[in-house]
Known about the structure:
The chain has 118 residues and is an all-alpha fold. Helices cover 66% and strands 0% of the residues. 0% of the residues are buried.
Amino acid sequence: MRWQERNTRTDHLVSPFSGKVLQVSEGIDHLGVIRWELAACLILAWILVYFSIWKSVKSSGRVLYFTATFPYVLILAFLAHSFTLEGSDVGLSYFFKPQWELLGDSKASKQYTEVQEL
């Protein structure tokens, strides 16, 4: 399938994303306008990079400790929150006691391939 051809089943999903979020232009000849919110984010990112390099090696150790441990702190916080949600005991029972006989069932894989073809 060529990239110009449209899939009518997914046009309603792709079109708002391409138009509003990506703001895709007509082609490489038409660059479009500058998106100031993206330009501001890019400038802010470069300012953060500048200030992180400015202090050099002295502060990079502290940054390393933060960036190495913070994801684990977030995972533990999300895990603790998920245990307090309604129905979490049912999900945990499915997770720790899998139904092995369903793995051999071809209906699930058939449904998955039908969804992928859409």
